[in-house]
């Protein structure tokens, strides 16, 4: 079987916003406590943050991290997390049926973000609270001084403001599970008024309004149309979320789900364009895909805690999916989809970063380790920056209950500023190797600078604290001759080839 691909230097999709490779930390399970924060851990710094986790986050080169939720934010009082730690209240977290000590709040998270070399993207609570708390939070975080909230921040030990640019106006407000769920009209009004107040403070903030929690919501896509009708001229992004499941163990169907993701993005992009035309607006709104991942492995084991059968535990293990080799292929294909839609998807957050549906896991008092899915995220984040190219692809496909003619080879390509081209490939075929023939037009590339492959594992192969068998190895056989890259893609494989 053969896949013919053409990459032409003049056919660009868009510049990739580096924030496409962002991630997410929520006060949920062990993401914060015994994830990023574990005073007393042998690698902990003076603030209690695990150095081994920070090293792995730095390896991933995560440009931005969304915080503090997620569902958690919809009943969160940000003021609980400021001031002396011993005075902070313990609260019930209604979203995850746990207790929250508030030992980590905005000051601590900001210190962690700085140590991890990433930017913060903050969410305000528009579930149980509203505009007033949101504007106070923004003033606390961003105002230099001389006002009640900014002086309180200074008193609490942070003299200079953090100047956070990206603000999420609530989280998944369409979801019946959300504390303070709203109809599209209710949310549209609140989001508009909140955006107005935040913009009155600072016109340069980048504001994100909630879209649908998933494309299977009954209110999708009417939700997007209504919410954007209220907010189009006041926001910069609409947020989309999607999680990928394989409860049936149907691999071809599972691996075809990125086609649904693509349709979701294209539909919302259409609604954005329709609203822009309707409003005769001059501004553009983009998509912030600020929650995405595979999430299903841990659903059963979490049920008792989420239904309250364990009481209100503090930082229990929750959403600790252990990813397998099949998930490497899926995460690789999802990232390819985002690269191919880089003209409308400007921000993406792999949900989440540590312990909770995460590429990085920790053992309390023990080591941190890399899940299988660490790797496709690592390669995209490290080598997927530059300009996304619009590839012409000719490759056989298959039909699944989700989509027709899903190409066996999923591919994206990114042209870096230094002229190198990185090609990300997933072969979805279960048994056949596919011969790749990539014509490079207008690109002066003469050598394979890097070739990394993840292949040949059992579909359910996983990594763990005792060992990481699912890791990239050097690919072989890739060749450039006369402006053509040829390589053989093993069945069920992930591959990244960088040409220089
Ligand atoms: O990432 C886990 C949860 O998934 C988030 O809290 C919520 O926004 C989504 O439903």
TrEMBL record:
Protein name: non-reducing end alpha-L-arabinofuranosidase
Keyword Cell membrane: no
Entry-linked SMART domains: Alpha-L-AF_C (SM00813)
Catalysed transformations (reactions): Hydrolysis of terminal non-reducing alpha-L-arabinofuranoside residues in alpha-L-arabinosides
UniProtKB keywords: Carbohydrate metabolism, Glycosidase, Hydrolase
Gene: abfA
Database matches in SUPFAM superfamilies: (Trans)glycosidases (SSF51445), Glycosyl hydrolase domain (SSF51011)
Enzyme class: hydrolase
GO BP terms, alphabetized: L-arabinose metabolic process; polysaccharide catabolic process
Family: Belongs to the glycosyl hydrolase 51 family.
InterPro entries to which the protein is assigned, alphabetical: Alpha-L-AF_C, ASD1_cat, GH, Glyco_hydro_b
UniProt-recorded Gene Ontology molecular function terms: alpha-L-arabinofuranosidase activity
Domain Alpha-L-arabinofuranosidase C-terminal: 290-493
Subunit structure: Homohexamer; trimer of dimers.
EC number(s) reported in the record: 3.2.1.55
